[in-house]
Write a structure and sequence with these properties.
Layout lengths: L6 H21 L2 H21 L6 H22 L5 H19 L12 H19 L3 H25 L2 H26 L5 H18 L5
Helix pairs in contact: 1-2, 1-8, 2-3, 2-8, 3-4, 4-6, 5-6, 5-7, 6-7, 7-8
Amino acid sequence: MALPPLVGPALAAATVSVALHLRAEYDGPRWQVYLFKPLTTTILIGIAGASAGEHGARYQAAIVVGLVCSLAGDIFLMLPRDRFMAGLGSFLVAHLAYLAAFSSGAPLGAAPALAAPLVVLAVLLLRLLWPKLGSLRLPVVLYTAAILLMVWQAVAWRWTAHTLGSGLAAGGALLFMTSDAVLALNRFRRPIRGAQVLIMCTYVAAQALIACSVGVS
């Protein structure tokens, strides 16, 4: 099934919004960061909430919850004071919501072989981050486990279903993991040139794919 007709304009609006947010990150004014960063995710919440719900009410509700929790995480991470733990907790709940959504399309633990490369990548990333994590080691390990399960479930759904909806979900999950990996390396390993652009472009693309998965079978 094709995407609903209003999705195209909404995605265009989200693209403009994230572009304005990124411009403000580098050149100011700061108030535009506070406006356009949450606005981008709010537009994506609208896409998921207004879609027909091709995978059922449970899937749609879980995706909307995940996006709303992501919006909370966006706000925590952009505030002047460091609220990293609050942001981390918000995104942890978002990943659990996405995990619940993707498990409606395939049973938990499907395609176990697909977990192996994801675990290897997660272990390598944690090894790079470990010396600088300090008191955040346990929260980061728990968060990594949650996103690992979420991505595995999305990829397993795609592996078993071969549908457009599962493909969008899997692509979104993998991009989300990429965004988080760059963010973590930039924060805890060493600064990455142009990190904010890479983090936000992969993040918004991830959330857009996941939001659009609601409206296609």
